[in-house]
Amino acid sequence: MKALVVTHEETSRPGFVGDRLIERGIDLHVHVMVPDTSQPAEFRSLPGDDFDVLVVTGSYFSVYEDAIKPWIGAELDLIRRAHDSGTPVLGICFGGQALAAALGGSVDRSPETEIGWYRISAPNGVDLPISAGPWMEWHHDRFHLPPGAELLASTEICPQLFRMGRSVGTQFHPEISVELASEWLYAASDDYLASVGIVREEIVAEVARNEAANRRNCFDLVDWFLDDVAKS
To answer: Out of 75, 93, 158, 218, which one is annotated catalytic?
Structure first.
């Protein structure tokens, strides 16, 4: 099987999600949309639809941001085509927001920024199909579910996990590792980190404390996606 992984910057790699897909025998083809984040309109054209699984990762950008208008429409079209054809789609953070937008939902600014480790909970009457976490959050935006989608988990701030057919979107970052977190933090400016109250060393230490458990939880999420969602 072949998975197309659409990332948006060099640092938005699939991390533990990619590791588990490879362990499950899936060949990853990673496509980076924006090679230089200082020029977000300069992008690499998406490949064709020759894949069995589509994974869309996080981003520094917002789905509704003017700076990415030259390419976000094509990405949403790719997601929509994959979903409509029955190809399993997994969207992570920005990818979850893009999935929601592609299928008729929407994305806007979250009432609160979530950065750190949060537990998620299922609505009444819904069995949470993955661990309650805690999961790593780092987002300023939120998705609103497409018509017909099933909400599977939320925090007090916003939706965190939804499913629609063979497509799944998360708001949290199951892929996070110390390596990825360090890259994100050191790519971020001091002014930005100060504005959201982040101290680099503290966040890296938190990720290190949670990394082993997060890897297990992430692998379980990928297994659920492949074994239950993709084969449904």
So the answer is: 93
